[in-house]
Amino acid sequence: MSTVVPINTGFAPQSWLSGLGSNPELRALARESDPELFFESLLAYGLRRESAGEIEAAARVYARIQEAAPEELSRRAARRLDAMVGRGAAGPRAEFLLRRLAGEASDPAALFAMGTAVTVFRLARLASLARLSANPAANLFTRGFGARAAASLAGFALEAPAFTFAGRLANQALGREQDWGPGAVGRDLASSYLVLGGLKLAGWATRAAYRNVGANLVFAPGGGGGRTQGSPLQILFEQTGMLGGILLGHHLEERAGLRPAQAGATTLIDSMAMLLQFHVAGRLSRHAFGERLAARELDMEARHRGLESFAARPPRWAAELLAGPPLAMAILGPASVGRPEPLRMQATRFPPSPAPAYENYHFPPGGKGQTTPPRLSYGETERRLWAGMEPELRAVPFEASRDEILSRRVSLETADRFWEFQIRDFARLLGAEVEAHPPERLIEPFSSQFLRPKGDLLRRAADFAEGGGRVYELSLPYANASFGKANVKGHYSNLRHLMGELEDAFGREVQLQFLREGRLRVRIPNFALWEGLLRARFGEAAHRPIPVDGIITRDDTMRLRGKLLAPVGMVRQATLISELGGKVHAFFVPFHDFYHATMASMLPPELCASCAGLYFPLQRGLPPSRLKQEHLNRLADLDPGSDFNGHPDAFVKFTLLPFWHSFFGEVEAGTMTQRRLQQYPQFLASYRRILRDEAATPGVTPLWREGFERRVNEFGDEFARLLTSVLRK
User: Fold this and answer.
1) In 179-317, where does DSSP find H-type helix?
2) Quick one: 181 and 123 in the same domain?
3) Same domain, 627 and 589
4) According to DSSP H, which parts of 324-379 are helical?
5) How many domains does the chain contain in total?
6) What are the pLDDT digits (tens) for 73-84?
7) Does residue 339 sit in the same domain as residue 401?
8) 34 with 119, same domain?
């Protein structure tokens, strides 16, 4: 039973305010002589402290009111206090927790502190990694995992103080009193190290766990090649781990006496709020610094990883170069380093079957050394189809407008009838079963373990598909099938990988592959349905298929790509695809081209038009070299990889990767000469001149022109610094 303070002239409010701090509001309240008004005002003061996020101050006020206030006020204070410590009715408790989550997640001081800390960590890590990479001594702490860990620790050492002092300064600016005594500041610093340390440690651990465990689960969402970056399962892994890390940090705070013990729900809410602050602050940091800081971070990672495998011995041509003209005179133009790693992940989406009928089928079949695939034998119907199509396939007006090219293309239904024969011939070679189905087959689950897609994409696709479309379903007596040169493991040659990437591209709204008991089942849309899926999924950005005669030139390919059109090669016999290093079955040529059309449709239309616009000036102006051809091939492929973020910097970095690979390859092989070295700055200088002189190239948007120009300039600068560092070794 609470004590009711009688109303008398001997009431001393100062005695009830002791221990609650000192501020103008409390000093004014100390002059109140009416006990009931005093405690009513004190309760209102406590509610304001609670709303302001000062939970400890509010709890002390409620406890003081509960001790001596009139009964009604005492009950109200007790309800608020119970809600704070996890007792009492569910309603007040939920209200307190939700208000606390909203208040802490949107607190400007906390967001400013976290944003400052994130930025300091990024900058400190980048600077540390740059210093370590520039160190000519290759050891545990200047190369590899040790260097990256050391750079991260250096960033973390500055991140926690930045978080503490930025938060205190922001709170001070907002009029919130701060204790700047050494003890209070030291406790805040210790808390920051514990909580941020737990966050980062758990984040690293869960990312590693996902790479080693989660990505290999049968139900892990992603492409056939393991393209699970950003998948719901990965997000669940990482966010759960980060939340657990913050909870661990708060628990360590409580054990160290840096944080008062609180109810589990309150600690969970605080942790969720901090996780939200972390993500919001990260976005604000990226927005404040733009994509350039992110690009610099990627570049430094690339440079560092490239140095990891660089031979410690001095190159034999170093003395010759250092004895010649100054290095600065040799480096004619600036540039940026790309990542010396393949951008496509090679993991297989499905685990190996426990007892496959056949592990793998490679086309062409046969014994060791066989390179000539079997010839197709066409019937009279197929010969007539080809004779009717061939003049139109050869007469595609590549220079004409998009509308004119579409109006004059071969009927997709006719092309598909010819392709169906090739699909059935391919199935015959494999001993596979093949059936034709209506479009609805694409959303029928392969087994009861799969959910049926909604079908919205397929319904929209049917509106675009000429003749309604068909689906060819093949049941292969193999766990996989690959094409091209034997033992080539590129993702373009792997049928399961390709089908998985296509499922990803279409938003998992169609089911294209399934592996069970060593048999691979795949579903392939015909020409018309594939075009319908592209238009339904990507709208105006879709690359419309244009059947052409065989493998057309790179120049004609770029003329079509600039108009958001995709060549689909029609062939009669096995044909060489250079990127696969060998001949492939005639069925696979259109399939391969449709795959590329799908991947290109995922890219920004401005990118496709800009690449086509720059291609021809670069082809004319770059000096003849292997660097030129590899760069133009990448411009034409329009395939920057699964981690492409749509930004010009990332795409230009992808197209310039061969430059980086070539340089390090020659250095490591010991074949670099002064004459060979001169090709690199000449390439960069010519590139800069073309970008400057071809300012009015049709189709090239200002954003992408600036992106190309900026990236090439940064590339050259980084190349010059890297070469200087290498020569000093």
Assistant:
1) 182-212, 232-255, 264-308
2) yes
3) no
4) 327-330
5) 4
6) 777 777 777 666
7) no
8) no
Do 256 and 209 have their domain in common? yes
Give 325 or 490, the one with higher predicted confidence: 490
Phi, psi angle pair for 221, to nearest 5° = -70, 140
Instruction: Work out whether the CA dihedral 706, 710, 711, 713 comes out positive or negative.
Output: positive
**Residue at 680 is within a domain:** yes
Residue where a domain terminates, one of 251, 283, 307: 307
Distance (Å, rounded) from C-alpha 284 to C-alpha 262?
Answer: 31
203 and 120 within one domain: yes
Residue 218 lies in a domain: yes
| pLDDT over 80 at 548, yes or no | yes
518: pLDDT strictly greater than 50: yes
Q: What percent of the chain has pLDDT over 90?
A: 13
0.85 exceeded by pTM: no
Residue 619 · residue 672 · CB < 8 Å: no
Q: Name the strand (E) or helix (H) holding 573.
A: none
One domain, residues 629 and 592: no
* Structural domain boundaries, residue 458: 391-599
Structural domain includes residue 583: yes
Residue 638 sits in the same domain as residue 580: no
Asked if omega into 453 is within 30° of 0 (cis), the reply is no
Alpha helices in 519-623 (DSSP H): 527-538, 554-561, 588-601, 605-621
Q: What is the mean pLDDT of residues 696-709?
A: 71
Distances in Å between the Cα of 520 and the Cα atoms of 72, 438, 450, 490 are: 73, 20, 16, 19
Whole-angstrom distance, CA of residue 332 vs CA of residue 692: 15
Domain boundary among 85, 119, 135: 85
Handedness of CA 391, 397, 401, 402 (dihedral sign): positive
Most confident of 121-135, 231-245, 281-295: 121-135
CB 462 within 8 A of CB 468: yes
Report the pLDDT value the prediction gives residue 364, as an integer from 0 to 100.
Answer: 56
Q: Which residues contact 169 (CB under 8 A, 6 or more apart)?
A: none
User: How far is residue 649's CA from residue 651's CA, in Å, rounded to a whole number?
Assistant: 6
Please report, for residues 10, 38, 68, 204, 236, the alpha-carbon distance to residue 73 in angstroms, rounded to integers and kept in the order given: 21, 11, 9, 49, 45
Amino acid at 328: A
Q: Given a cut of 80, is residue 102 above it in pLDDT?
A: no
DSSP 625: S
